[in-house]
Amino acid sequence: MHNRVAFVTGASGGIGKACALALADAGARVALAARRRDKLEEVAAEIRSRSKEAYVVELDLASDESIKQAFAVTAKEFGRIDILINNAGITKDGLALRMKKDDWNAVIETNLTGTFRAIQQVLQGMMRERWGRIVNITSVVGQAGNAGQANYAASKAGLIGLTKSMAQEMASRRITVNAVAPGFIETDMTSSLSPELKQKVLEAIPLRRLGCPQDVAAAVRFLASEEAGYITGHVLAVNGGMYM
Q1: CA 231 to CA 227: how far, in whole Å?
Q2: Which of 55, 152, 230, 243 is labelled catalytic?
Q3: Confidence band for 2, pLDDT divided at 50, 70 and 90
Q4: Is the model's pLDDT at 191 over the cut of 90?
Q5: Is 243 a catalytic residue?
Q6: Rounded distance, CA 154 to CA 85, Å?
Q7: Which distant-in-sequence residues (6+ apart) come within 8 Å of 11 by Cβ?
Q8: Is there a contact between 117 and 176 (Cβ–Cβ < 8 Å)?
Q9: Measured in whole angstroms, how far is the alpha carbon of residue 24 from the centre of its chain?
Protein backbone atom coordinates (compact mmCIF):
# COMPACT_ATOMS: atom_id res chain seq x y z
CA MET A 1 0.00 0.00 0.00
CA HIS A 2 3.12 2.13 -0.14
CA ASN A 3 2.26 5.65 -1.37
CA ARG A 4 -1.35 4.83 -2.14
CA VAL A 5 -3.79 7.59 -1.17
CA ALA A 6 -6.74 6.52 0.99
CA PHE A 7 -9.84 8.59 1.76
CA VAL A 8 -11.78 7.50 4.87
CA THR A 9 -15.22 8.91 5.69
CA GLY A 10 -16.42 9.00 9.29
CA ALA A 11 -12.75 8.94 10.29
CA SER A 12 -13.20 10.86 13.55
CA GLY A 13 -13.68 7.83 15.79
CA GLY A 14 -14.59 4.18 16.21
CA ILE A 15 -14.33 2.04 13.11
CA GLY A 16 -13.32 4.93 10.81
CA LYS A 17 -10.42 5.92 13.03
CA ALA A 18 -9.24 2.29 13.29
CA CYS A 19 -9.40 1.98 9.48
CA ALA A 20 -7.41 5.19 8.99
CA LEU A 21 -4.70 4.02 11.41
CA ALA A 22 -4.53 0.56 9.81
CA LEU A 23 -4.18 2.02 6.31
CA ALA A 24 -1.56 4.52 7.46
CA ASP A 25 0.42 1.74 9.16
CA ALA A 26 0.25 -0.22 5.89
CA GLY A 27 1.92 2.71 4.12
CA ALA A 28 -0.98 4.70 2.68
CA ARG A 29 -1.26 8.47 2.86
CA VAL A 30 -4.62 9.07 4.47
CA ALA A 31 -7.27 11.76 4.09
CA LEU A 32 -9.50 11.85 7.16
CA ALA A 33 -13.04 13.08 6.50
CA ALA A 34 -15.95 13.76 8.86
CA ARG A 35 -18.07 16.62 10.14
CA ARG A 36 -16.01 17.38 13.24
CA ARG A 37 -12.61 18.88 12.49
CA ASP A 38 -11.47 18.84 16.14
CA LYS A 39 -11.91 15.07 16.37
CA LEU A 40 -10.22 14.58 12.99
CA GLU A 41 -7.22 16.62 14.14
CA GLU A 42 -6.77 14.22 17.08
CA VAL A 43 -6.70 11.22 14.72
CA ALA A 44 -4.33 13.05 12.36
CA ALA A 45 -1.98 13.79 15.27
CA GLU A 46 -1.93 10.09 16.16
CA ILE A 47 -1.08 9.14 12.56
CA ARG A 48 1.63 11.79 12.32
CA SER A 49 3.13 10.62 15.62
CA ARG A 50 3.81 7.34 13.78
CA SER A 51 5.65 9.31 11.07
CA LYS A 52 2.83 8.79 8.55
CA GLU A 53 1.00 11.32 6.42
CA ALA A 54 -2.53 12.50 7.27
CA TYR A 55 -4.75 15.21 5.81
CA VAL A 56 -7.90 16.53 7.47
CA VAL A 57 -10.97 17.48 5.43
CA GLU A 58 -14.45 18.42 6.60
CA LEU A 59 -17.22 16.37 5.01
CA ASP A 60 -20.99 16.29 5.50
CA LEU A 61 -22.49 13.43 3.49
CA ALA A 62 -25.92 15.06 3.61
CA SER A 63 -24.59 17.92 1.46
CA ASP A 64 -23.76 17.48 -2.21
CA GLU A 65 -21.65 20.63 -2.15
CA SER A 66 -19.63 19.42 0.85
CA ILE A 67 -18.97 16.06 -0.85
CA LYS A 68 -17.69 17.65 -4.07
CA GLN A 69 -15.54 20.13 -2.15
CA ALA A 70 -13.97 17.52 0.15
CA PHE A 71 -12.89 15.24 -2.69
CA ALA A 72 -11.70 18.12 -4.87
CA VAL A 73 -9.37 19.54 -2.20
CA THR A 74 -8.05 16.06 -1.34
CA ALA A 75 -7.31 15.20 -4.97
CA LYS A 76 -5.55 18.54 -5.29
CA GLU A 77 -3.51 17.90 -2.12
CA PHE A 78 -2.51 14.30 -2.95
CA GLY A 79 -2.80 14.22 -6.74
CA ARG A 80 -5.26 11.31 -6.71
CA ILE A 81 -7.35 8.99 -4.52
CA ASP A 82 -6.64 5.26 -4.85
CA ILE A 83 -8.65 3.84 -1.96
CA LEU A 84 -12.06 4.95 -0.70
CA ILE A 85 -13.44 3.67 2.61
CA ASN A 86 -17.10 4.61 3.03
CA ASN A 87 -17.64 4.31 6.75
CA ALA A 88 -19.66 7.39 7.75
CA GLY A 89 -23.20 6.66 8.86
CA ILE A 90 -25.93 7.80 11.21
CA THR A 91 -28.83 6.16 13.04
CA LYS A 92 -32.26 7.54 13.89
CA ASP A 93 -33.92 4.50 15.42
CA GLY A 94 -37.63 4.08 16.00
CA LEU A 95 -40.48 1.70 15.30
CA ALA A 96 -41.66 1.82 11.70
CA LEU A 97 -45.23 2.50 12.78
CA ARG A 98 -44.22 5.89 14.15
CA MET A 99 -41.10 6.66 12.12
CA LYS A 100 -41.14 10.22 10.84
CA LYS A 101 -40.41 10.75 7.17
CA ASP A 102 -37.52 13.07 8.13
CA ASP A 103 -35.88 10.30 10.18
CA TRP A 104 -36.24 7.89 7.26
CA ASN A 105 -34.87 10.40 4.75
CA ALA A 106 -31.94 11.57 6.88
CA VAL A 107 -30.59 8.03 7.33
CA ILE A 108 -31.05 6.99 3.68
CA GLU A 109 -29.64 10.33 2.47
CA THR A 110 -26.45 10.09 4.53
CA ASN A 111 -25.76 6.34 4.63
CA LEU A 112 -26.78 5.34 1.11
CA THR A 113 -27.05 8.39 -1.15
CA GLY A 114 -24.06 10.12 0.46
CA THR A 115 -21.93 7.02 -0.03
CA PHE A 116 -22.98 6.77 -3.68
CA ARG A 117 -22.11 10.43 -4.26
CA ALA A 118 -18.71 9.87 -2.62
CA ILE A 119 -18.05 6.92 -4.93
CA GLN A 120 -18.92 9.06 -7.95
CA GLN A 121 -16.20 11.55 -6.98
CA VAL A 122 -13.38 8.99 -7.19
CA LEU A 123 -14.36 6.88 -10.22
CA GLN A 124 -12.81 8.97 -12.97
CA GLY A 125 -9.47 9.20 -11.20
CA MET A 126 -9.41 5.46 -10.51
CA MET A 127 -10.38 4.68 -14.12
CA ARG A 128 -7.53 6.87 -15.33
CA GLU A 129 -5.04 5.06 -13.07
CA ARG A 130 -6.62 1.68 -13.90
CA TRP A 131 -6.46 0.81 -10.19
CA GLY A 132 -8.82 1.38 -7.32
CA ARG A 133 -10.21 -0.04 -4.12
CA ILE A 134 -13.64 0.91 -2.79
CA VAL A 135 -14.76 -0.59 0.52
CA ASN A 136 -18.24 0.16 1.85
CA ILE A 137 -18.97 -0.41 5.53
CA THR A 138 -22.41 -1.99 5.73
CA SER A 139 -23.76 -3.85 8.78
CA VAL A 140 -25.04 -7.20 10.01
CA VAL A 141 -28.33 -5.32 10.36
CA GLY A 142 -28.37 -4.84 6.57
CA GLN A 143 -28.20 -8.63 6.20
CA ALA A 144 -30.40 -9.86 9.02
CA GLY A 145 -32.63 -6.84 9.76
CA ASN A 146 -33.30 -5.38 13.20
CA ALA A 147 -36.52 -4.26 14.84
CA GLY A 148 -36.55 -0.50 15.36
CA GLN A 149 -33.99 0.13 12.63
CA ALA A 150 -35.98 -0.10 9.39
CA ASN A 151 -34.29 3.04 8.00
CA TYR A 152 -30.76 2.01 9.04
CA ALA A 153 -31.19 -1.61 7.87
CA ALA A 154 -32.59 -0.44 4.53
CA SER A 155 -29.68 1.95 4.04
CA LYS A 156 -27.13 -0.75 4.88
CA ALA A 157 -28.84 -3.39 2.72
CA GLY A 158 -28.87 -0.78 -0.05
CA LEU A 159 -25.09 -0.49 0.28
CA ILE A 160 -24.77 -4.21 -0.44
CA GLY A 161 -26.72 -3.87 -3.69
CA LEU A 162 -24.70 -0.77 -4.55
CA THR A 163 -21.44 -2.64 -3.85
CA LYS A 164 -22.34 -5.51 -6.19
CA SER A 165 -23.56 -3.24 -9.00
CA MET A 166 -20.48 -1.01 -8.82
CA ALA A 167 -18.23 -4.08 -8.73
CA GLN A 168 -19.72 -5.23 -12.04
CA GLU A 169 -19.45 -1.79 -13.63
CA MET A 170 -15.85 -1.20 -12.59
CA ALA A 171 -14.23 -4.63 -12.91
CA SER A 172 -12.82 -4.08 -16.40
CA ARG A 173 -10.86 -1.08 -15.08
CA ARG A 174 -9.20 -3.09 -12.30
CA ILE A 175 -11.24 -1.29 -9.66
CA THR A 176 -12.60 -3.59 -6.95
CA VAL A 177 -15.67 -2.75 -4.90
CA ASN A 178 -16.35 -4.72 -1.73
CA ALA A 179 -18.22 -4.36 1.55
CA VAL A 180 -17.45 -5.19 5.15
CA ALA A 181 -20.43 -6.01 7.37
CA PRO A 182 -19.57 -5.53 11.05
CA GLY A 183 -21.68 -7.09 13.78
CA PHE A 184 -21.81 -5.47 17.22
CA ILE A 185 -18.58 -3.53 17.65
CA GLU A 186 -17.52 -1.62 20.78
CA THR A 187 -17.88 2.01 19.67
CA ASP A 188 -19.79 5.11 20.77
CA MET A 189 -22.73 3.76 18.76
CA THR A 190 -22.99 0.63 20.96
CA SER A 191 -21.76 2.05 24.29
CA SER A 192 -25.27 3.35 25.01
CA LEU A 193 -26.74 -0.19 25.15
CA SER A 194 -28.23 -1.10 28.53
CA PRO A 195 -26.48 -3.94 30.45
CA GLU A 196 -29.53 -6.19 29.83
CA LEU A 197 -29.49 -5.53 26.12
CA LYS A 198 -25.72 -6.01 25.98
CA GLN A 199 -26.16 -9.42 27.66
CA LYS A 200 -28.81 -10.36 25.11
CA VAL A 201 -26.53 -9.31 22.26
CA LEU A 202 -23.61 -11.35 23.65
CA GLU A 203 -25.83 -14.43 23.84
CA ALA A 204 -26.53 -14.05 20.11
CA ILE A 205 -22.80 -13.99 19.26
CA PRO A 206 -21.11 -17.42 19.08
CA LEU A 207 -17.71 -15.88 19.90
CA ARG A 208 -19.32 -14.39 23.04
CA ARG A 209 -17.73 -10.97 22.76
CA LEU A 210 -18.33 -7.69 21.03
CA GLY A 211 -15.92 -6.93 18.23
CA CYS A 212 -13.40 -4.11 18.45
CA PRO A 213 -12.81 -1.49 15.74
CA GLN A 214 -9.47 -3.15 14.91
CA ASP A 215 -11.29 -6.37 13.95
CA VAL A 216 -13.13 -4.41 11.26
CA ALA A 217 -10.09 -2.38 10.23
CA ALA A 218 -8.09 -5.57 9.54
CA ALA A 219 -10.75 -6.73 7.07
CA VAL A 220 -10.87 -3.30 5.43
CA ARG A 221 -7.09 -3.13 5.14
CA PHE A 222 -7.05 -6.55 3.45
CA LEU A 223 -9.73 -5.64 0.90
CA ALA A 224 -7.88 -2.40 0.13
CA SER A 225 -4.58 -4.21 -0.45
CA GLU A 226 -2.81 -5.45 -3.58
CA GLU A 227 -3.39 -9.04 -2.42
CA ALA A 228 -7.17 -8.65 -2.64
CA GLY A 229 -7.06 -7.81 -6.34
CA TYR A 230 -9.11 -10.87 -7.34
CA ILE A 231 -11.91 -10.18 -4.84
CA THR A 232 -14.78 -7.94 -5.91
CA GLY A 233 -18.50 -7.67 -5.15
CA HIS A 234 -17.91 -9.50 -1.87
CA VAL A 235 -19.48 -8.85 1.53
CA LEU A 236 -17.05 -9.80 4.31
CA ALA A 237 -18.84 -10.37 7.62
CA VAL A 238 -16.95 -9.41 10.79
CA ASN A 239 -19.59 -10.36 13.30
CA GLY A 240 -18.33 -13.12 15.60
CA GLY A 241 -20.65 -15.61 13.93
CA MET A 242 -23.78 -13.65 14.80
CA TYR A 243 -25.16 -14.04 11.29
CA MET A 244 -23.95 -16.74 8.92
Answers
A1: 9
A2: 152
A3: confident
A4: no
A5: no
A6: 20
A7: 17, 19, 20, 30, 32, 33, 34, 40, 43, 87
A8: no
A9: 16
